[in-house]
Design a protein that fits this description.
The complex is a heterodimer of chains A (287) and B (498). Chain A has 11 helices and 2 strands, in the order E-H-H-H-H-H-H-H-H-E-H-H-H. Chain A is mostly helical and 287 residues long. In chain A, helix 1 packs across helix 2, helix 1 runs antiparallel to helix 3 and helix 5 packs antiparallel against helix 7. Chain B folds into 4 domains: 109 residues, no CATH class; 102 residues, no CATH class; 112 residues, no CATH class; 44 residues. Chain B contains 28 helices and 4 strands. In chain B, the strands form 2 sheets. Chain B has a two-stranded antiparallel sheet. In chain B, strands 3-4 form a two-stranded antiparallel ribbon. Classes of the chains: A mainly alpha (287), B mainly alpha (498). At the A-B interface, helix 2, helix 4, helix 6 and helix 7 of A face helix 14, helix 17, helix 19, helix 25 and helix 28 of B.
């Protein structure tokens, strides 16, 4: 019954664009951020030089941060729309089954368990990655705000939060980059190049290996029913103004994030002192 | 009687005068008339005609006979005889008189007066003025002969003869005056005196080694073409390069020389810092350095003297604290107001403050440079210096917080970096900073349980979480690869079996 040549839709165009935006902003943030973290290493100094100096690198980093936050705001809107208007199943929510799947996969890998886990639309590996991105983004945005607006931060929080935020911003960045290089790259590039995030489609073989339960459901026609169009319309009418208000608030928040304070004056005040003041009428008089 | 020249020659002789002279009867060795008026035959009566055409010739003829008893004139007074062709050259009697020949002791009471019988007027009026001043300033035991000795004098001695006696000033066209007095001892006792340096024996510098270009050699000197005394000093420093070329070249790159080139003539020349005749080792004692700079930079020197560095130098003679030149350099002093100076200044402070051996004497942390560089200010400054050393940055460097010349010890209530004053210091650049803000700076402490514990815990958290997470991922990936290889071999075996 199953058609091995068939491919299955996985990501719509908006999700794919969202991924590209995240990919670009994350990469730019990493490329401009890590050299700042290790700025005294020769390679980092070289990279900063190549990118036009530290001030330019900071501007690029902050621009990419704004892009990342815009993407995050969009994601929040799209996600709530899908949940509250389209009422899609919360397939990304982690559960006990994911722990079991993970352990089974590990057991299967080392040969202790005969069969690999059969997993749903999002398997444990993908959930780890998604929630890591969520957690990482929250940490990076919060600590980033503190570093961007240290005066506003210290008007509420103790001063030590600033260097702590810097430590966390760097630590979390390193964790994120290393996770992408290991977990993400292995799972979607090395193990098998998973093109679904770019083409929108996933092959039968990939479905079989990674989303066996979802495949089974599709093949048995147990796909979730399309939402009732009148219900969607009704909920849309409620959602759109609500989302507009929230989005506006978030965008204002982003604007404040970027423009809230001028941390420092642009020029360090020079000490004013008369350099040339003689004690003797004329020293070294030629006799 | 009348000589052929028409001059009168008195035949009358006051015997009492001869008697009272050193040649007279009261002397140990009385001289008789014909001892001097020789040969005796000529003076027998009746006298023959006097062969002398004039009075001077007659005196010269008589004076030849002085050598019968006295040292030859060539030895006694060669100077005068050098001008033998001159009809006015004096003979013995010109100075020592004839019948009333004076005792030497009596002459010594007024030696100048003797010379001045002839030497009263000079062709060049300047010579008369100078001589009048020199004679007026002659000290005990000094006479015309002090300068006009009968033996040849060295060139330096010739300069010193006059300039050690002169007390007047030379007036330049601008009205500035230059003291003409020189104390030769100052040069002898200076670094330019005779000394052994690095195995080389140096003789004392001669006056004309330096005073050469202005045409000062020879007397009367050529006029100095400098308008003002400052012009003269600036022009004269050119001569230093003849021996000190490398230093002179470096000085040319320095801020003082640049200012002079740009027309600020009060900027320091070689002599302004080192002196001229009495040059001593400029850094012995060390506080001499700050005193030298303080001559022109008095206000800064006052600040420095009251600072933690200056107080230790001046009060304790501390050899470790910096003097001006340790931070500013010596001859090629860079302009301290440039961006480049600012950006490199932390490394300058770090030369001492990151030196473990030096700092442990005073129990001062050497983490200061590393912790600064690791922080936002220091990282930016370091990167700026690396990428664009001449570009201005608004990031604080050491002296923006600690002070420049006026750095105070942390025990001082006015210190800019103690807790009580730190907010104010931060507000110089962060005007909106509030009470908590200064704590966002880690105060040069590496994060620990004691200092900045929150940062310490965040670091600790990631030190555990990163290896644990990435290690977990790698473990999982490793087992996955392991399984795939096993499966691949399994498929191959199955294919073979078929």
């Amino acid at each position: 019954m199953s058609n091995r040549a068939q491919s299955y839709p996985r990501f719509n165009i908006f999700q794919r664009i969202e991924h590209i935006v995240l990919l670009v902003s994350f990469s730019v943030l990493a490329i401009t951020g890590l050299p700042q973290m290790y700025s005294l290493q020769p390679w980092a100094a070289f990279m900063i030089d190549a990118m036009g100096g530290i001030e330019t690198v900071r501007v690029i980093h902050r621009t990419a941060a704004v892009l990342l936050i815009l993407g995050t705001i969009y994601h929040f809107g799209a996600l709530t729309y899908r949940i509250f208007v389209q009422r899609v199943a919360l397939t990304m929510l982690p559960g006990l089954q994911d722990v079991k799947d993970g352990l089974q996969a590990l057991g299967h890998n080392v040969g202790l368990v005969k069969t690999p886990p059969r997993m749903g639309r999002y398997n444990f590996g993908e959930k780890v990655e998604y929630w890591a991105v969520i957690w990482g983004t929250v940490v990076m945005v919060l600590t980033g705000f503190m570093l961007w607006n240290p005066i506003a931060t210290t008007s509420i929080l103790p001063g030590q939060f600033i260097p702590a935020a810097k430590a966390a911003h760097g630590g979390e960045a390193l964790l994120a980059v290393l996770s992408i290089i290991t977990w993400h790259f292995y799972n979607v590039h090395v193990k098998r190049f998973n093109r679904s995030m770019f083409t929108g489609k996933i092959s039968h073989a990939e479905m079989e290996e990674e989303h066996a339960l979802e495949l089974e459901a599709i093949e048995q026609g147990r796909t979730p029913p399309e939402a009732d169009p009148t219900g969607v319309q009704r909920r849309q009418r409620l959602f759109v103004p609500f989302a507009a208000v929230i989005t506006t608030i978030l965008l204002i928040g982003l604007y404040i994030f970027v423009t809230f304070e001028q941390t420092a004056i642009t020029t360090v005040p020079r000490q004013e002192i008369e350099a040339f003041t003689r004690v003797t009428p004329e020293p070294g008089v030629v006799q | 009687m009348t000589l052929p020249s028409g001059e009168a020659l008195h035949a009358g002789v006051d015997l009492a005068v001869i008697g009272q002279s050193v040649h007279g009867s009261s002397a140990d060795a009385p001289v008789y008339c014909t001892d001097c008026h020789a040969p005796r035959q000529r003076y027998q009566y009746p006298h023959g005609a006097n062969p002398a055409p004039d009075r001077a010739s007659f005196k010269a003829e008589v004076a030849q006979n002085c050598e019968q008893c006295h040292v030859a004139a060539e030895q006694h007074n060669p100077g005068h005889l050098q001008a033998a062709a001159d009809a006015n050259v004096p003979t013995c009697v010109e100075c020592h008189n004839g019948h009333d020949v004076a005792p030497v002791a009596a002459m010594q009471t007024d030696p100048v007066g003797t010379c001045q019988r002839c030497h009263q007027e000079f062709d060049d009026p300047r010579l008369g003025d100078i001589h009048a001043e020199l004679v007026a300033n002659l000290g005990a035991g000094q006479s015309c002969e002090t300068c006009h000795a009968s033996t040849p004098q060295s060139e330096d001695a010739q300069c010193q003869n006059c300039h050690s006696l002169l007390t007047s000033q030379l007036t330049l066209p601008s009205g500035d005056t230059v003291d003409l007095h020189v104390n030769p001892e100052e040069i002898i006792d200076s670094v330019h005196g005779e000394q052994m340096l690095a195995g080389v024996q140096y003789t004392t510098l001669r006056c004309t080694d330096c005073h050469q270009a202005q045409g000062l050699r020879g007397f009367p000197h050529q006029t100095i073409d400098a308008e003002t005394r400052r012009d003269f000093t600036i022009a004269l420093q050119q001569v230093c390069q003849e021996c000190h070329l490398d230093i002179y070249d470096r000085t040319g790159d320095g801020v003082h020389a640049q200012h002079i080139v740009e027309g600020s003539l009060e900027a320091a020349t070689c002599a302004d810092c080192h002196g001229n005749h009495a040059i001593q080792d400029p850094a012995t004692p060390r506080e001499r350095v700050s005193q030298t700079c303080g001559n022109c930079h008095a206000e800064i020197n006052d600040q420095y003297s009251a600072s933690v560095h200056g107080a230790a130098l001046l009060g304790e003679d501390n050899p470790d604290v910096p003097v001006c030149t340790d931070c500013h350099g010596v001859h090629d002093i860079p302009d301290p107001t440039t961006a480049a100076f600012r950006l490199s200044s932390p490394q300058m402070c770090g030369r001492c403050h990151a030196d473990v051996d030096l700092m442990q004497k005073y129990n001062i942390s050497t983490d200061v440079l590393d912790t600064y560089v690791a922080d936002f200010h220091g990282t930016t400054v370091t990167l700026f210096e690396h990428h664009s050393p001449d570009e201005a940055s608004n990031q604080a460097v050491c002296y923006d917080c600690h002070g420049v010349h006026n750095i105070l010890p942390v025990t001082d209530a006015n210190s800019s970096i103690i807790k009580a004053n730190l907010l104010q210091t931060c507000q110089q650049c962060h005007p909106d900073a509030t009470e908590n803000f200064p704590d966002s700076w880690t105060s040069h402490f590496k994060p620990s349980l004691e200092h900045n514990p929150l940062v310490y815990f965040v670091d600790l958290f990631y030190m555990i979480v990163i290896p644990a997470t990435v290690g977990g991922f790698l473990l999982f990936i490793g087992t996955d690869i392991f399984r795939r290889i096993r499966e691949w071999f399994g498929r191959r075996r199955a294919a073979k079996d078929e």
